[in-house]
Amino acid sequence: MNVPLVETRNLKKYFKTPKGNLHALDGVNLRIEKGQTLGVVGESGCGKSTLGRVILRLLEPTGGEVLYEGKDILKYSSRQMEEMRKKMQIVFQDPYASLNPRMTVSEIIAEPIKVCKTITQKKEMEEKVYELMKTVGLTEKYINTYPHELDGGRRQRIGIARALALDPQFIVCDEPVSALDVSIQAQILNLMMDLQEERGLTYMFITHNLSVVKHISDEIAVMYLGQCVERTDNEELFRNPMHPYTQALLDAIPVPSLNGNKKMKEIIKGEVTSPVNPKPGCRFAARCPKVQSICTENNIELREVKSGHFVACTQY
Amino acid sequence: MTDILLEISGLNVMYETDDAKVYAVNGLDLKLNKGETLGLVGETGAGKTTTALSIMRLLPEKIGLIKSGTIKLEDIDITKATEADMRLIRGESISMIFQDPMTSLNPTLTVGDQISEVLELHKKGMSKEDMSRRVDEILRLVGISPERKNDYPHQFSGGMKQRVVIAIALACEPKLLLADEPTTALDVTIQAQVLDMMKDLKEKLNTAMILITHDLGVVAQTCDRVAVMYAGEIIEIGTREDIFGGKDHHPYTDGLFGSIPDLTRTTRRLNPIEGLMPDPTDLPAGCKFHTRCPKCMEICKTVKPENHVSHTHNIKCHLFLNNIESTA
């Protein structure tokens, strides 16, 4: 069995607040195979962005392991992490906030190269920047423009070019298309999928949009309040969602068709409970239409209930 | 006795700055019936928000101008109303809710006070007790416990804040509600709750609504009619059945549908529309979509297309030279 490119074991991230520990991530176990895309879905506060950042050590975890090609990178020194950064990159959600407004397009794309000194010759650097711009579909004329002069779609292309500058293997994509119009979203998604095919990239694609995640992912993990409640391959998740939260999530999506009216299906009630000092047991229990007393007694494991299909639910 | 609540004819709205003239709305025609929900769909820069702000007469002073056209709310011509008239209309006859609930609420006033504010302005005869009762009633209507009326906005989640915004908008039972991307900032399960609630309220209060959104799923679920906007014009309008079930569409509408990843099918590549929305300071001649249209003909480059009508379905496109078949 192949060693996955990225793996997390019992990954935890707690934030201290005046009211107690906020459990942003609680015992997350994931694996991403080389060349594949893991879609991570969930709603506000489920921990998906925190997961992306902790895996890259942009935030330090509270516990657990992050393995890259089988080695625990949490134990790496800062020198070793500098090397790792060339392999692991990130594309951020907000194409307005993630680009330095005082730097031109070429300066932004060249920045990682300058920091890591992968290229030092000016001419070579320029060529690399042009090449990257071409790869992401940005015409040469934008070389000296500033981010504010460009629309969201083009800015996001800059973000992607920047992420590719060091020829990484693994890219965390944190809601990269959420801020974009539908037709620009489609262009960017196509671009990302083409790049994956051409370069054998591995993606962790974080989003709350299930239609997007279905389009781009090989495997999907559903997060709720810091825990992974279901994980399986793309087709299986949509064909056979097992966790009540996943079912509710799929039911809630408004479908752009005449027959999409889900008036008959139960609309999930209530709001997400607090992630501060969570009680033992299932965190979805308060809203679950199938809750039983056993659900709030002990913590529930994510178990392989069917081949390749993992669920954390007492029903199975 | 007509059923028409709102009638917009030949609306032209411009933003004029020292640097440029932005043609945001170009020859918009629209009719809305009482109690009807119209979805106004289009991408960034299409002119949807400008249209809504024009109806509310909330365009930025000096820069935003209604160059020509009329907006009639029953008998009142909004374009000719004074600011004093508009202050009475806003909140009472027409209400608007905006995209981001985080910034729509006053952080220094309690939720109850913000709802009372609307009542104080428009229902001058109301006693304090009646107002308090009405606030409780409205909160219950949007699914918030009246016990929370002395809480501040920061004590509520995003979905709850949006319910408060809706409560404020509906407090005086307006005839028309303009909702500008009301659920875009909300999680999908909360969106489902809020949309469900809005549907209920509309039925109870018989409020007409213009729902601005880019989400075709939301449109399919909540709207009676749908208007597609592009570069300041409505290029297609029809009933829900026309738009989602009909076979004839404006190429731009087809493009929008083609851009959405479909939950029911697996496709390798999406079919986005090439290029970007045209620069509103420099719009193309003829049909404004022609530069991006996969079906562009010679005539499209120079001649503006007329409306091609079939019962309820209008499409502004040269492809449909004869009247289009109705969806039977």
Task: Name some characteristics of this structure.
heterodimer; A: 316 residues; alpha/beta; Rossmann fold; 9 helices; 12 strands; 23% strand; B: 328 residues; 8-stranded mixed beta sheet; 4-stranded antiparallel beta sheet
Write structural notes for this entry:
The complex is a heterodimer of chains A (316) and B (328). With 316 residues, chain A is α/β, with parallel strands linked by helices. Chain A has two domains: 6-87 and 168-311, 3-Layer(aba) Sandwich (Rossmann fold), CATH 3.40.50.300; 100-167, no CATH class. Chain A is 30% helix and 23% strand. Chain A has an eight-stranded mixed beta sheet with strand order 6-7-8-3-9-10-12-11, with helices on both faces. The longest helix of chain A has 18 residues, at 182-199. Chain B is globular and about 70 Å long. The two termini of chain B are 30 Å apart. Chain B is of the alpha/beta class. Chain B folds into two domains: 4-93 and 174-316, P-loop containing nucleotide triphosphate hydrolases (Rossmann fold, 3-Layer(aba) Sandwich), CATH 3.40.50; 101-173, no CATH class. Chain B has helices spanning 48-56, 83-89, 101-104, 111-122, 128-141, 158-170, 188-205, 216-222, 240-245, 251-259, 298-302, and strands at residues 4-16, 21-33, 37-41, 64-73, 76-77, 94-97, 176-180, 208-213, 225-230, 233-239, 307-310, 313-316. Chain A binds chain B through residues 43-44, 151-153, 181-187, 189-190, 193, 208, 210-212, 214-215, 235, 238, 248-249, 251-258, 260-262, 267-269, 271-272, and chain B through 43-44, 157-160, 187-193, 195-196, 214-222, 240-241, 244-245, 255-264, 266-267, 269-273, 276.
How many domains, in number, for the residues of chain B?
Answer: 2
Order of neighbouring strands in the sheet with most strands of chain A: 6-7-8-3-9-10-12-11
Q: Which blocks of ≥5 consecutive residues of chain A have pLDDT under 50? A: none
Distance between the termini of chain B: 30 Å
**CATH fold-level assignment of the largest domain in chain B:** Rossmann fold
Give the full name of the CATH homologous superfamily of the largest domain in chain A: P-loop containing nucleotide triphosphate hydrolases
The overall pLDDT average of chain B reads: 88
| Number of DSSP-assigned strands of chain A | 12
The CATH architecture term of the largest domain in chain B is: 3-Layer(aba) Sandwich
Gyration radius from CA atoms of chain B, angstroms:
21 Å
Q: What is the molecular shape of chain A?
A: globular
**Overall tally of domains of chain A:** 2
